[in-house]
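Each lists sequence, tokenised fold; shown next:
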Amino acid sequence: MSVPRNRTDQHDKPASFSIENDTIFPVPEERRHGNAWSLLLVWIGANQNIMAIMTGLIYPALYHLSLGWSLLAILAGNLLGGVFMALHAAQGPHLGIPQMQQTRGQFGATGSLLIIAIIILMYISFTRTFFAMGREQAALVFGTASSQVSIWISAVLIGILCTIGHGIIERVISGFIPVAAVTFLLLATAYLFASHGHLARPVWQIPTLHDFLAAFSLGVLWQIAYAPYVSDYTRYLPSRTGERTAFFVCLAGSVIGTALPTFIGSYLGSTTFAGTMYDAVRPYSAILPILLFLVMATSTLVSSTMQVYCAALSSLTFLQTFRADWKPTGLARAMAAVLILLTSALITINLTGNTLDILNNVIALLLAVLSPWTAINLVDYYLIRHGQYDIASLFQRDGGIYGEVNRPALACYMLGILVQIPFLSNGLYVGPIASLYGGIDFSWVIGILVPGAVYWFWARRPH
């Protein structure tokens, strides 16, 4: 059933509290909703979280960037990474299926399982990082005795949202935007007065090339990390929205949404104030640290829900590979979400170490495994198939016209990981070529260009 172009009826807004049952299957046109504005709000809201603020702290703390150069690295990195992310987002309105289901078109039904498993691990890694941040914030405000409680409270609330589905998640994300924006700006003001406006470094103190490129790469990966699931949300848009609109709206929303809290985080880390964010607001009222914590906790809730919801869809895609006749419903999605939440919570409870270091290392590893996948997916979608996929084949046990295993695509993916090793430079490993250039990490560039080019040449050869 197609939707007339001039139609703006009840399908423009989802029923927030009705259980979503589409899961991994194509979203019918009559159940699609939203427009460019609602999509813009989703991707602004998706980035209004404490992880963005903590990531901003990395720029002055680990990369030694001044405030001005932090802003340049944030904008430039997120803009470049956002282009790749938005190219994935544009696939959603056209195909109407989750990104991991579409990945079968490149790697085959069984061959895609490796990619899906890696993406699920990525979701769990980000969720446990959010949980660790929430625990750390709870300990700062209420003491260590209550810190683990925050994990379980968050897990329960996330489970409820994932059970209801996309409609309520979208509403919560959009509704949180003004609360987060006002809170983050007031927090920056509190730091301004607490530090008497003094910065630890001059605004435009020139950084080393290594530090700037490392900071630049941080912004690139922040956006690329959305690539495996950005179309999980854009697939609910009416097909008339179009790929071009989805691309520019997602790009603008995610870059703008990320830049504000990340820059505020870099500002907090650049001031001479040595206390925590709660110390900065405590002099004005004893209730302010609690209110600030509630906003920060809500931000982890919002972002973790996005991770867990898509992790549940990816898990259903993984399982449906072995049972092509299985039609997972909202109940299956809820059960998958609970298992993912339980796993993430248990890992977090046993997780120790500095949160900033953990976050930085997780991001570095993700960049290495996501770059080759994003290159192969985008080359296949835009340069090889031009968006034309046989949807029915993507749900067949034998992969239909795409087969069970596309060995050349998997070989390109593994090649994309291997060629990055000499160029890697992070807290876990520094490759020999990166060492020759002062520890500058070029790996993600190699991880996109090499597998993308090899896959393009292979796919265009005469069969």
Notes: The longest helix spans residues 288-320. The chain has one domain: 37-365. The radius of gyration is 22 Å. The chain is about 65% helix and 0% strand.
